[in-house]
Write a structure and sequence with these properties.
By secondary structure, the chain is α/β, with parallel strands linked by helices. It has twelve helices and 13 strands. Strands 7-6-8-9-10-12-13 form a seven-stranded mixed β-sheet, with helices on both faces. A six-stranded parallel β-sheet has the order 2-1-3-4-5-11, sandwiched between helices.
Length: 303
């Protein structure tokens, strides 16, 4: 059976379960702050979308599997939502009998064998935001870790649809990152080209790479963006980060039969918030539109 057919069958089962019992069950892990707030916000978003208030079960670090099985068995027929890696692992190891939806994972399409919504933001939203802030940009250099080749395979078609050229730069360690970036800074045209740092790239060596990138970008007036709020706070032009309540709404919508066409497979989230550095925009000579400023959930420096 192909993966597409399997997903379709799983979703049909979810639809049948919803029709029989619109109750939603949510398994999620107990976690320290701020991770606990992430799960809470997602569950609030789900509750705003579904017909009945969800029933939830928090998983301690060492869950009682018999108790979980009893809880699920007593509610057989309800739709089940798994949040986080621990809930997914328990389901995979000890249950796997009913249809599920999965969320709160930093996974790419194809990496999770059940339908759901990722915490990874749709690459198209980054390019859309770039166009709104800097409509004159024609080329994006995307710097990413070698293990994220699959992510890059989604970036290219998104850029093509936006009429942008994306040149990927794959790095594996601090040395390769410094070497590639040194060449990039010497050759790119800041009037037409922006830099995009994918998740974990600067984490190779934050103390070395981030100051290096920020200093060179500021000196050469290059627009730089990423998926990390701290980067925008310290000087990148903007960053996108998940709107966790919005992710919950997306998950809740996928549990509803009226939106079945949207509910196939594993998808990037499009529930994103904008962190914007107004000072950097002024330094780059950008006049930000009022609607872009109003869209920003975080504006740096803070007024």
């Amino acid at each position: 059976m192909s993966r597409a057919v399997a997903w379709g069958l799983l979703w049909w089962l979810c639809q049948a379960a919803w029709a029989a019992d619109p109750t939603v069950l949510i398994l999620y892990p107990e976690a320290p702050p701020p991770y606990q707030q992430v799960f809470e916000q997602i569950m609030i978003g789900v509750a705003q979308t579904v017909e009945r208030s969800p029933e939830t079960l928090a998983l301690p670090p060492t869950p009682d599997r018999a108790n979980i099985r009893h809880w699920l068995t007593a509610r057989r027929g309800a739709a089940l939502l798994l949040l986080g890696q621990r809930a997914l692992q328990i389901y995979q190891a000890d249950w796997t009998e009913g249809p599920v939806l999965v969320g709160a994972l930093n996974a790419l399409p194809g990496q999770v064998p059940w339908p759901g919504v990722s915490l990874v933001i749709d690459p198209d939203l980054y390019l859309q935001t770039l166009h709104e802030v800097l409509p004159g940009i024609e080329r994006v250099i995307a710097v990413y870790h070698a293990r994220d080749d699959q992510w890059m395979s989604w970036v290219q078609p998104a850029a093509t649809q936006r009429g942008l050229r994306v040149d990927p730069i794959k790095v594996t360690d601090t040395e390769s990152a410094v070497r590639e970036l040194t060449h990039v800074f010497k050759t790119l045209d800041p009037q037409t080209t922006a830099l995009w740092f994918a998740k974990s790239t600067l984490d190779l060596n934050t103390e070395l790479l981030y100051p290096f990138v920020l200093e060179e970008a500021w000196r050469r007036k290059i627009a730089v963006f990423s998926d990390t709020v701290a980067h925008a706070k310290r000087g990148f032009l903007f960053a996108l980060y998940p709107d966790y309540k919005g992710v919950g709404v997306e998950l809740g919508q996928r549990l509803h039969p009226d939106v079945a066409p949207m509910a196939k497979g594993w998808a990037f989230t499009r529930a994103a918030r904008l962190a914007l550095n107004h000072r950097t925009a002024r330094h780059l000579g950008i006049t930000l539109r009022d609607d872009v400023i109003q869209r920003a959930s975080l504006l740096f420096p803070q007024p």
